[in-house]
Amino acid sequence: MSIPLPSVLKGLAALSVGIAAGYQFFSTGTTRKALLRPPGALDEPEFLSHCLRCGKCGLACPYRVIKYDDSLSQGTPYLIAREGPCRLCDDFPCIAACPSAALAPVADKRAVKMGIAVIDRDLCIALQGMRCEVCYRVCPLIDEAISIEYSLRKGDSHHAIFEPVINAEKCVGCGICEERCIISDPVAIYMKPRGS
Amino acid sequence: MRLNIVRHIVQCLIIVLFLSPLIAESFLGILPSDWFFFGTLSSSTILGSVVIVDPFVALQSIAASKQLPAASLIIGSVTILVLYLLIRGRVFCGWVCPANLIFEIVEFCARPLHRWLRNQERQIARKTRDGKPRARLASALSRRVKIIVAAGVLVLCALCGIPVFELISPIGATFRGLVMGAWVGIWVLLALVVLEIFYPGRIWCRKLCPLGGFYEFIGRLGFFSVKIKPGCTKCDKCKIVCLCDPSVLNPVIQGSDVVVRAGDCMLCGKCVKACPDDLLSIKPVLPLGLPKQQSK
Description:
The structure holds two protein chains of two kinds. Chain A is of the alpha+beta class. Chain A has six helices and six strands. A two-stranded antiparallel ribbon of chain A has the order 1-2. Chain A has a two-stranded antiparallel sheet with strand order 3-6. Chain A has a two-stranded antiparallel sheet with strand order 4-5. Chain A starts with a helix and ends with a strand. By secondary structure, chain B is mainly α. Chain B is built from 15 helices and five strands. In chain B, strands 1-2-3 form a three-stranded antiparallel beta sheet. Chain B has a two-stranded antiparallel ribbon with strand order 4-5. In chain B, a hairpin with a 3-residue loop joins β1 and β2. Chain B starts with a helix and ends in a 12-residue tail after the last strand. Chains A and B meet through α1, α2, α3 and β1 of A and β2, α2, α3, α6 and α8 of B.
């Protein structure tokens, strides 16, 4: 006995829905490392519960750098510092646009805590004796969050090393230094998101 | 007045409204936040100051965070709630929800296929069973299942600590994708479209959607309802076109009530137009009234 055509069609439809659902489940189920959240974000578990996934912070951002996650935390905002760092606007339009206080108001840019910058001393050319200081110059909290420390080059009594050093207490993790760093793949300075 | 055409225009305008900040950005170079409206169905900002929030999203967020919500969350969702309650809860489904529009289009386009499927099944039934085709998958479920789904979603939110429905919501999935690059909803939407094509009966909107379930729950509180005049011939033409769930018309057809009170009714106006004797109309009705026997 042959299977009737409607049943074949319905079966195929159900199968394709199943495959789509399975694909979705496995592609969103992959865990990924901590994300760099926009300024004012609550601690990660609280942030995930408060965030409405409404997309307004990204629409309100004048630089349009806020991206939205497509993994398990589907639709929550984050930044990729190398592609678009937070410029720490005076009025924080992203926070103002948040209806659920998942991005909570901050007093000023110094109160932001997105993460901290970490310098890879093996990659940073300053440690090889070259004067770069790009990360230092572009830092919105220059001489507070980042400073240049001088030392004599090892085995060289004439040349100094001008090493950029992050003050973990003061650094807000905006990512501007990572965006501008002249070393790529990998970048010599990167953001460590808060809570990672 | 062709209420149904007005309704389709409103549905399309809603989509244009949500896409307008992106259109303005790419063609006029205006920042979305400087446009008169920006946001998604979850939450939007009008004229840069008025915040509106989908009350069911707000409930999910409150259930997930188990904390006192932000003032803007309460004000925004109460604003929307009051607006819908002034008319009728599920006016959202009938007049605003883009998923409903999509399923209406799919149902319209797939009508020849549905008819063919039905005929095929009748033929098979004639050979194998006692001539009766199997009941449609959609009609096996009660229209109140979606209220349970909505309650289940809220419980799940509390357990997982995240607004779970927002992760996969097919409602407004396109805006979510375009505005936020979060495309998961589009897969759910596509899956539901495929289901709708091969398992007719608007199973998502009528039986399963938690957002619809939420609005059904408060739907009875609205100030507008479909009213019937005496003289019904029980031709069931209204039930054939009913967009939400034909069973909501049973009380007025059987004469046990003069008003369609069920929270499901989304005031689409299709039954009003379908009635051959012009007995149905949308009228202001005080909410929470008791059933009133039709005078003979």
